Amino acid sequence: MRVWLVCIGEPLPIDKGNERQLRTSxxxxxxxxxxxxxxxxxxxxxxxxxxxRFERDELIQIHPRISLQLLHARPYEFNISxxxxxxxxxxxxxxxxxAGATAAQARPDVILASMPTVDLAAxxxxxxxxxxxxxxxxxxxLHPDIxxxxxxxxxxxxxxxxxxxxYRDLRIALRLASGTMGIAPSFLxxxxxxxxxxxxxxxxxxxxxYPELNASPEELHTAARTQAAAGVRVDRKIxxxxxxxxxWIDLRTPIEAARLLxxxxxxxxxxxxxxxxxxxxxxxxxxxxxxxVVFTGWIGVPTISYLRSVAWAGLAxxxxxxxxxxxxxxxxxxxxxxxxxSIGGDASSIIEEHGCGLVYEGGNPASxxxxxxxxxxxxxxxxxxxxxxxxxxxHFASDxxxxxxxxxxxxxxxDRADAFS
Length: 421
Description:
Distance between the termini: 16 Å
CATH superfamily of the largest domain: Glycogen Phosphorylase B
Low-confidence stretches: none
CATH topology of the largest domain: Rossmann fold
Largest sheet: 8 strands, mixed
CATH class of the largest domain: Alpha Beta
Number of helices: 16
Number of domains: 2
């Protein structure tokens, strides 16, 4: 079959230094392995590195069965900004233009459109409706509600008016969709509310997953030497964060928890922070005097694999109002790391259901210290580590989830073919 994937925001296989595959990339690879042809619609603008890949629309063959159609749109500097909203609107227009020019014989049998962005999801479902092509919407983030959560409550009615075009596109996407997927049950419930009074024929939850990491013994040895030189102490309980330093991540609380431990003379715990982003300078300055905090900067797969093997717990320090389930949870779970999590909702339900972590109160350093102490009790960390590995193997293994997704998504194309037979 021919399958279109509409998703921006993920690292692409063509990105220099990108060794990690996320949901769409893994799904595309699974489809190709099963003999299907994939066209992945993405953006010329790299959301993660804030750079333009190309200055025009570009079609690139990256695998005998996988092509990238990059849509050109303006850059933006900040994730929450008018420039980003304009970028998304331009991407929607570019999709309508290029998809509309596609010859009938090159049109897909089915489309999977990820949301965000609502602009592209609406454009994809409108295209599908026009040409009788089933479109499945994958709800991965609760846009545009996430913008409302950043506005003081008294001003939210006015913000809702300003965001009216996005809510219109949200309704279009969900009401025209042939089916919906979500990364957690609450995401499908949210989608159902916004789709009302229309309902889709079928929906399913497919959680995020994490692939196996491949690193040679030589690469791991080099990573171990490099991290030791940077100050990482494998003889301590390493509480490890890996990811982007953005407005939804609260590393101030872990840094202040490290200060409490240092002031108490505790040397058994070390916070290792991997990544970079908008708050890099601020958080480094905050931790500058602390002997138990190490910043590693950006790291690749070999170092991720190494740190995951020596860390004691994975840190998921989200700010209140974070409305999704981050990749971080599944990255830690795949490595058998118990999780220290700062929020409730679907994320806390996952670690509670599988017994693989503890929740602390976001913004409260003493609460994080208390959670670390609770995890330090006899056998707790070891039990949670074993539970994490079991959860990955039985529920979050990439191969298993992606094959289930293939069956679900291609089922809509099969139903369509049966209807015309």
